[in-house]
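Quick one:
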Amino acid sequence: MDKRGDPRIYKVLDELGISFDYYEHPPVPTVEEASKYWKDIESAHCKNLFFRNHKGNRHYLVIFDYSMSLNIRDLEQRLGQGKLSFASPERLMKYLGLEAGSVSPFGLINDTAKHVHLFIDENLGKYERISFHPNINTASLVIPFSGFERFLEWTGNSYEYIRLYD
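Output:
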């Protein structure tokens, strides 16, 4: 089967020894729409939101379980980065090489300047497997959580675990 998405992702996963399961589905621009295709896939499914700070000189990828909702004002308090807003499609393309509806930490493969900082909900660490789009919203990749951490180390982007939910 020809895998959809950025072929560099599959090459990096192979080089890092990260196993993955690949699932194709119709285009799903939101996790709400994607959830109907995930019902038989055993993993934590992630929501990935791309923010910018008030000055527009810092960008953040926030990753958490798709079933949780997020209050931006609460997020601002928890992150301590000042006022946040969703980054524009132009910024998403500039820093992660992605289009809206396909946001994924795999987009870090395009962030050669290591500009984007990640905030990862620490609750995701309790899952053995997690899933993300392979930079296109017509497929999902499920990888071990330990493989996700290995991928993050490979990217060189800064990241931290935070508690988004009590």
